[in-house]
Automatic annotation (TrEMBL):
CDD domains cross-referenced by the UniProt entry: GDP_MD_SDR_e
Pfam families in the cross-refs: GDP_Man_Dehyd (PF16363)
UniProt keyword Lyase present: yes
Coiled coil regions in record: none
Lineage, top ranks: Bacteria, Pseudomonadati, Pseudomonadota, Alphaproteobacteria, Hyphomonadales
Keyword annotations of the record: Lyase, NADP, Nodulation
Known catalytic reactions: GDP-alpha-D-mannose = GDP-4-dehydro-alpha-D-rhamnose + H2O
Enzyme type, top EC level: lyase
Role noted for this protein: Catalyzes the conversion of GDP-D-mannose to GDP-4-dehydro-6-deoxy-D-mannose.
Family: Belongs to the NAD(P)-dependent epimerase/dehydratase family. GDP-mannose 4,6-dehydratase subfamily.
Protein's name according to its UniProt entry: GDP-mannose 4,6-dehydratase
Superkingdom of origin: Bacteria
Signal peptide coordinates: none
Length: 356
């Protein structure tokens, strides 16, 4: 068992929670940064929390924010990490068009602040740094599949901010010799995926429609294609990237791509419904083939000013040098997410019935 210490920003997010679990299982001491919020925001890591008054714990949460340099310097100083995983970000592409400045501040400058904290504290040779880079960097299609050598063409304020974060990570590696790596991760999902990303939005709606609690699922672009994997596999990849002797930039992907439309079809099929598509563009609808009920409609509000049409990654380098590969297949991912949301809806209805 290792006695390494890790600091994770974004620990309350989907990946942060999976990564914290993985590192604790490996024997790490884990420090996580959570934001102050007016309501609880730690649901994904609540089961890891142990009251320090009751017994010793290897899991510690601290308040912090990527927009606050002094806070980040203090957190690095106090937690004395061997490894820093920078997962915190305003991570929603569509929201970044509405909050571009904040997204730049948290996602781009936030990364710089953390790297500067390492330098200010003289930890250049003592800490390994992981940056949560993204397939959104590829943006407008330049070549497929996308690999570590494919040129970037960001298509949103989010992707532009992550482009800065990517290059400042490379620069601090080259300028100061910091073991700083980028994981260029393609979309990865799971039952705890944020509710407004398309996969979770679909699986929640499918479960709610099945229980008669919702009638219609409203979506935007059904033809965007994504390379979707399972978050559990991808946090294992993050860890392997940091363990590699030489800091570098790595693509983690499944090498398969599927349109949003197919995700919708598979999700409904999991509960025995077949979707028939009719119409085109904003008038397209998805009907239940048996009952004729309209289950899917288009709402143009969900179209993005600039879209990323096609993502498909080439994970060869990670496979050959890190021994990393995804283990969850697309169809199993959809199935797991639908089943988890059905169970959630059932638990919530049960709770409501009991309190009525
Ligand atoms: P989530 O949106 O689920 O989690 C983001 C985390 O960042 C949350 O803990 C959030 O806190 C925190 N956060 C947001 N803003 C700040 C801030 N200003 N200061 C401190 N913390 C902040 O994202 P994922 O877990 O899905 O993704 C993790 C990282 O990987 C992100 O950087 C994302 O951009 C990147 N990425 C994700 C991919 C994916 O498919 N999931 C693919 C490629 C990259 P709170 O819980 O309070 O909101
Ligand atoms: P993405 O994920 O933008 O790829 O970013 P998201 O699930 O939001 O969108 C995927 C695709 O689905 C289309 N889409 C919709 N998207 C949402 N959210 N809601 C809808 O109703 C809807 N209808 C269609 C989108 O247009 C898009 O093409 C995610 C985030 O996790 C980023 O942080 C990460 O960097 C990338 O994945 C890799």
């Amino acid at each position: 068992m290792s006695t390494k210490t890790a600091l994770i920003t974004g620990i309350t997010g989907q990946d942060g929670a999976y990564l914290a679990r993985l590192l604790l299982d490996k024997g790490y001491i884990v420090h996580g940064v959570k934001r102050r919020s007016s309501s609880f925001n730690t649901a994904r890591v609540d089961d890891l929390y142990v009251d320090p008054h009751e017994r010793d714990t290897r899991f510690h949460l601290h308040y912090g924010d990527m927009t606050d340099s002094t806070n980040l310097i203090r957190l690095v100083q106090e937690s004395k990490p061997d490894e820093i995983y920078n997962l915190a970000a305003q991570s929603h592409v569509q929201v970044s068009f509405e909050t571009p400045e904040y997204t730049g501040n948290a996602d781009a400058l936030g990364t710089l602040r953390l790297l500067e904290a390492i330098r200010i504290l003289g930890l250049d040779n003592a800490v390994r740094f992981y940056q949560a880079s993204t397939s959104e960097l590829y943006g407008k299609v330049q070549e497929v599949p996308q690999s570590e050598t494919t040129p970037f063409y960001p298509r949103s304020p989010y992707a532009a901010a992550k482009l800065y974060a990517y290059w400042i990570t490379v620069n601090y590696r080259e300028a100061y010799g910091i073991h700083a790596s980028n994981g260029i991760l393609f979309n990865h999902e799971g039952p705890t995926r944020g509710e407004t990303f398309v996969t979770r939005k679909i699986t929640r709606a499918v479960a709610a429609i099945d229980k008669g609690l919702q009638q219609t699922l409203f979506l935007g672009n059904l033809d965007a294609k994504r390379d979707w994997g399972h978050a559990r596999d991808y946090v294992e990849g993050m860890w392997r990237i940091v363990q590699h002797d030489v800091a570098d930039d790595w693509v983690l992907a499944t090498g398969e791509t599927h349109p949003v439309r197919e995700f919708v079809e598979l999700a409904f099929a999991e509960l025995g419904r077949t979707i028939e598509w009719q119409g085109t563009g904003v008038d397209e609808i998805g009907r239940d083939a048996k009952t004729g009920d309209v289950l899917v409609k288009i709402d143009p509000r969900y179209f993005r000013p600039t879209e990323v049409d096609l993502l498909i990654g080439d994970p060869t380098k990670a496979k050959e040098k890190l021994g990393w590969t995804h283990t969850t297949k697309f169809a199993d991912l959809v199935s797991e997410m639908v089943r988890a949301d059905v169970a959630l809806v059932e638990r919530e209805s049960w709770r409501k019935d009991r309190s009525a």
